[in-house]
Structures are given as C-alpha cells and as structure tokens.
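Lecture notes, part 5. Sequence design as translation. It can be helpful to think of inverse folding as translation between two languages: the language of shapes and the language of residues. The source text, in structure tokens, appears below.
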C-alpha cells in the first residue's frame, strides 16, 4: 500500500512511518500524506516488510496500528530493534487492556480511532519533540559510528573468521547496531561464513543511480539472525573495479550515521578502497600469527602504515592461533614487531567446523575457547578506552 505524499520541501517536516492496520488507519494515512508539516515516509501492513525503512529512514515517529484488544508486543519489539523513534499505537474497538499494558511499555501514546486528524497530528508532533529530547540525552552523536578494520598482509591468517565472529558478537552480545562491510572485493567470503546468500552486494549499491544516504544503504544490506547487517563483496571478481576509493569514502561516511560499529573485512593489499578505509578507520586490528613470513609482512605493513601517516595509536596487534606449538612464542613476535600483542585468539577446532556450517563460532559453540576470546575482543571494541588511559597502557607496556 502506498500513498502520494505532498511535494513540499522535506526539511523540518516530521518523518513518520505507519505499520500495521486497523479500522480507520487507511483513512488516517490518506490525511497524513496530505499534511504539509509531515512526511509520510511509507506504510507497511506487516512490520517485517518495513525493517529497512525503519532502520535507515531517519524516522521521527512510528505509528503502529492494531485491531487486537491487547498490546502487540512482538511487533513493537521488531520496530524497537530497528529504530529508536517514539511509537504511537493506533487502536480501534475495545482497547482498555491495551491501554493499561501500554503504560508499562516503551510507547509514547495510544490513540483510539476514529480521531480528528488534527488530534493525531498534534500527538505526532508532541512525540517527535519528546523523542528528539530523549535521543539527544542518550545518544551524544548519531553520526559517529566507529570504523574497525581487520587487516593482515598475508592471506589465510584469519581476517574473515575474526571479522564475522566479532561483528556477530557486537550485534548479538553487545547490542551494537553493526554493519559488516566486505572489502575483500574480489574474493570476499564473509557472507558465506555467516551462512547468507545475499541478493544485493556492495557492487549493486555503488552502481545504483542517485545519491547515497542511510535510507538507500538500508535497502542494500542483508540481515543476519544475530541482528548484524552485512554489505557483501561483489559476486563476480571483475565487478570489484567499480567499487572505487571515492565510493568507499562516501559509503563509510553514510554508514557511520546508521550504525554504532562498522566492521571492515579486507584483502591483503593496500589498494585504493583500503586507503579510503584507513582514512576513516578508528581502530585497525592487525592480524598476525606465529609464522615467520607473516611476521615479516606485518612488519612491512607497519612501516607502510607509518609512511601513510596512519596514527600508530589506532593499531591493535591481534595474534591468531596464539596457542599453536610451532617453536615460537608471543614474546618473539612482540620483539620482532616492537609492539605488544593486544588480543590473543587461540587455535580451535570449533572454527573450521563452524566455517563449514556457515554459522559463526560465537553462536555455534559459545563455550569454545575461540568464542570466549572473541567475546572479550567484542567487549573491548564496544567500550573503547578513553585516550588518556590507552596512552598510559601503551607507555607502561613499552617500559
Ligand atoms: N583461530 C583459529 N582456529 C582454527 N582455525 C582457524 C582459526 N583462524 C582461522 N582459522 C581457519 O583458517 C581459515 C582461513 O581463515 P580466514 O578465511 O578467516 O583467513 P583470511 O585472512 O580471511 O584469508 P583470505 O586472505 O584468503 O581472505 C579458515 O577457514 C578457518 O577455518
Ligand atoms: Mg578473508
């Protein structure tokens, strides 16, 4: 169901989305679509059809219509998963129980239809104002999602296993709105490790006409059961060429507005899109292993990063398969690289088992050593140390 909205300028208009239906809701939507102070972003009878718009639509109010006599808690929970905009419940018929329940829930208002459209407009504006105030208090800046890039100059060191598990843990266990961006543009396999077969990839997004904004981005991501969203690598290696440095720069800026954390998986090269990513990276997880050629290349990468003026304080050394008995100890890696290992991740049989099943280890085998280590990394990424504290830690680690 869709309605033509009026054509006036969109700024300063309250952005509203309507989900569900009840007696009188269709008439009300017609009235909303022609109200100059409101922008009716869309209407969806079933909440599940609207998740993209709810997440990326910069909504100020969501109206949810129900003909049930009780509060539709499951549907409200789905809306809450995707947006923090205030929710007004529209009901028809006997609703005294629903109203009672609404007092206990995170609902801005309940309106019984039919209503004079002016009453509904007023309730929307009131909810939008209070929503803005409370969002301002709890979310200091909506546009400051952190970009965490996972890199290693050697193939097969565990970048994708670490990125997919970390991103899943951030979404599922740390409650962060998380996007996984697969920048291994030619041979990315993050989606497959998550057991997903996405219809759209980063290629479709960058070749689509029109300006990129959060709403458009939301239409191209694929959602995993953990809540994590992913923008996968192109399906064909030759399509990677069109994913340019400029496109990645713009994409990351937009993604910061919709997500708390953007996890970037990479290939072992410093190509254009990687340089654009480094420009915006807040934390670089540099993956190393107990293996002489990898250590040599990680050392070269650190030198390249310095030449690129990438701030070394943003680099975290991750030692994957840290417990492998290969005649080398963590201390030797630290000496060779002249920096401390920040995270150790053990070698674990649970990893290949989970990879082959397309299910991240943090979900498939939450008690495994690998999952526990990844949960710790997720906690640290979700709660970054204040800069002063991090400086102290680095100073004493060197001493
Ligand atoms: N800690 C670990 N324990 C056991 N197996 C692991 C571990 N880390 C990685 N692996 C295995 O190593 C394989 C390669 O890992 P992964 O694909 O994540 O590497 P990569 O760095 O992304 O490689 P590429 O550069 O080819 O993309 C995986 O299939 C996984 O099974
Ligand atoms: Mg990989």
């Amino acid at each position: 169901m869709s309605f033509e909205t009026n054509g006036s300028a969109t700024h300063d208009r309250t952005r509203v989305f309507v989900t569900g239906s009840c007696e009188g809701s269709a008439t009300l939507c017609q009235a909303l679509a022609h109200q100059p102070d409101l922008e009716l972003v869309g209407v969806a009878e079933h909440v599940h059809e609207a998740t993209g718009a709810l997440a990326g639509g910069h909504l100020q109010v969501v109206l949810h219509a129900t003909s049930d006599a009780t509060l539709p808690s499951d549907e409200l929970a789905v809306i809450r998963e995707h947006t923090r905009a205030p929710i007004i419940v529209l009901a028809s018929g006997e609703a005294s129980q629903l109203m009672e329940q609404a007092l206990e829930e995170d609902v801005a208002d309940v309106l019984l239809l039919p209503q004079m459209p002016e009453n509904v407009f007023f309730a929307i504006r009131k909810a939008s104002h209070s929503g803005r105030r409370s969002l301002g208090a709890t979310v200091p800046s909506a546009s400051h999602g952190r970009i965490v890039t996972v890199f290693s100059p050697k193939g097969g060191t565990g970048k994708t296993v670490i990125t997919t598990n970390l991103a899943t843990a951030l979404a599922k266990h740390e409650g962060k709105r998380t996007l996984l961006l697969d920048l291994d543009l030619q041979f990315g396999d993050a989606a497959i490790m998550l057991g997903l077969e996405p219809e759209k990839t980063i290629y479709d997004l960058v070749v689509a006409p029109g300006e990129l904004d959060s709403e458009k981005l939301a239409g191209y991501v694929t959602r995993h059961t953990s809540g994590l969203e992913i923008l996968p690598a192109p399906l064909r290696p030759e399509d990677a060429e069109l994913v340019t440095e400029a496109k990645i720069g713009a994409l990351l800026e937009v993604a910061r507005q919709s997500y708390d954390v953007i996890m970037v998986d990479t290939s072992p090269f410093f190509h254009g899109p990687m340089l654009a990513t480094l420009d915006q990276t807040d934390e670089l997880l540099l993956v190393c292993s107990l293996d002489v050629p990898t250590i040599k290349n990680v050392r070269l990468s650190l030198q390249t990063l310095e030449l690129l003026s990438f701030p070394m304080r943003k680099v975290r050394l991750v030692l994957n398969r840290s417990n492998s008995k290969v005649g080398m100890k963590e201390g030797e890696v630290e000496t060779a690289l002249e920096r401390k290992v920040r995270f150790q991740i053990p070698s674990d049989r649970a990893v290949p088992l989970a990879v082959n099943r397309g299910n991240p280890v943090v979900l498939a085998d939450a008690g495994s050593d690998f999952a526990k280590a990844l949960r710790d990394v997720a906690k640290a990424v979700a709660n970054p140390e204040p800069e002063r504290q991090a400086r102290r830690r680095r100073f004493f680690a060197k001493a």
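The translated text above is only one of many valid answers, since several sequences can fold into similar shapes. The chain has a mean pLDDT of 89.
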